[in-house]
Amino acid sequence: MPGTSTTSAAASRTAALLLLGDGRLPAGGYAHSAGLEQAIARGWVRDAADIADHLRGRIHTTGLVSASFAAAAQHRTRLALGAGDLTGLRAQLTELDRELIARTPSPALRKIGQDLGRMLLRAMRSIVPEQAAVLAAAGPVLQQPIAYGVVAAALGLDARDAAGVVLYDSAATPAVAAVKLMSIDPFATHRCLAELAPDLDRLAERAAAHAASDPRELPSHAAPLTDIAAELHSHHDQRLFAS
Q: Mind telling me which InterPro entries this protein's record contains (predicted)?
């Protein structure tokens, strides 16, 4: 039938996006609040309006940075797959990893990013074993956004897809955690996510535009309170989330 292959490709892409965007994916993200727990404990976030501001600030700073690195990782992985030569991929991803770490002042956030990246790659090795070669070539330890970029390429997604998934994750992780931390109406938190949709789309386009950039030229927007919250949280005795 005319258009069947195109329809099939679109369905596969949609399924891959849903898989990566699913909070139930066993890659560890559900155990984190992305700094929101400490922000609530310190009184920086107190209600639904504060959550909306927190999420908006997050996607425009560290979210955009992470998305840009995911897009860059996807681009390099896709090129390696297209050339049929994965030998130089690890070195390219390692360079991206170093640059992202340099943009992450908090040692706690660096470790969290590394742990989540490792867990994502581990999960995907079991979920899509046919992609074992490219996942192995990427290396066992990468910061989470870079791991997302590799996985996106392995699943046939493009740079904008990778950026979009990472941006959504950067907002959805604390939004879902807010329900447990504040006993807030879950409809209110998801309304915040829905209202961010235009921003998420624009930021994904901006991030994807950096896919082929030199790693040193990738965005470096900072969110100092996020780094402070992560360090405070790592020494907090009573906590519900790992971060």
A: UreF (IPR002639), UreF_sf (IPR038277)
Structure tokens at 227: 């780094």
151-160 per-position pLDDT tens digit: 999 999 999 9
The answer to whether residues 165 and 152 touch, using CB atoms and an 8 Å cutoff, is yes
> CATH code for 25-234?
1.10.4190.10
**Residues 6 or more apart in contact with residue 202 via CB below 8 angstroms:** none
Structure tokens at 83: 């050339």
Q: Can you give the residue ranges of every domain in the chain? A: 25-234
DSSP code per residue over 171-192: HHHHHHHHHHHH---HHHHHHH
Q: Where are the alpha helices (DSSP H) in the chain?
A: 4-21, 36-41, 48-58, 64-83, 89-102, 107-127, 132-138, 144-154, 159-182, 186-195, 197-208, 224-234
Query: Which residue's structure tokens are 């970029």?
Result: 149
User: pLDDT at residue 227 above 90?
Assistant: no
